[in-house]
Every structure is written in structure tokens, then in C-alpha cells.
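Here's a chain:
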Amino acid sequence: MTLLSETIGGNVDDVVQTPSVVAQRTLCIFAMTALAFGAEKSDIEQWLDAENLLNSLTPRESQFLLDFPNVSEKTIIEMTWQVEALVVLIWALQLVDSLPPKTQQVDTAILTSLLPPFSDVSVSEFITHARLRNEKELFKMAVYLQDQHGRARTQHSIEIIEILQERHRAINWIVGYCQQSWEDCNTDT
């Protein structure tokens, strides 16, 4: 659909995700990271069910929710890293003006103030009124994160690599990189 996709190694028939799909993905990741950071499982399950988001979870997220708290420490840590992807989704939805520096992990308090059920908007309103940045901005960020991630692989600590990998994966999914699903979206550099 866009020649911009070729700037990151994608295909010309790649399609940017719709605002409502990005909003749903945002809420699912928010719920899963909240669980990983210590929220009550029953609260998360009830909220996802009440808001009709259970079917929007990926297979991996569904399994995490089902098995929690009987999951490995590694799995919990991997899920907490998703906040770095979450901030890119929030940026794409125009809820923040910029991403934190690549050397700084996301402040989770910021996320809580922006997203249901803690913000002043309902889940329905959040999804219905979601608006994405324009394609040029999205692909500019995709090129930037791809470049930064590639550089980090040879020049930085593992923490910076993890931050950039999650952010890179999120933007690739948003722009429809090679038409990959959330769980399959890779971070080629």
C-alpha cells in the first residue's frame, strides 16, 4: 500500500494497522504488563472480560493470563519489557509527544494516567476515538528505531538493546512490516 514500507525493508503491499486495532493492542499489553508488575489476576481477567478484550489477546498473552502466577521468572521479565513496546503504541496514538530517550526505561506511572481504566475515558471511547499519527511520521520513527537498534547491537549495553528491540518491534507491527502478527513481528536491522 505504501512505498514508505520499503524504507525499512518491508513490502509495498504492507498496510499500516488501523487506529482501533492499535488501541486494542495497547490495552491488551497494558493489562498483561500490569499483571507482570503485580496487579491482581482476578482484576485483570474481570476487566478484560467486561471490556470484551479477551479475544484480542495474542495466544502467548492468553497463555500467560491462564498460567499466572505459575509462570517462570523469565516469562514475567519478558512480559514487563513490553512496556517499551507500549510506549511506542501510545506515541503512535498521539497520547505522548515523544518517546523517552533510548537510555531510559518507560516510567509506568505515565502509562497509568493515559489509559483506561485509570484515565478519564472508557475503553469504548478509547478505541472509537483512537487516531494514529500520519504515515510519514510513523515510517520516520520506524527508520529511526531500526537504525538505533542496529547501532545498539554493536555499541551498547544489553538494557539499551532490550529497550530498542521492544520499541522497534512495536513500530514494525504498527506500520505492517511484512504483514507480520504482533507475536511474529521481527526486528531486522
Q: What stands out?
A: The longest helix spans residues 135-155. Residues 3-179 form one domain. The chain has one domain: 3-179.
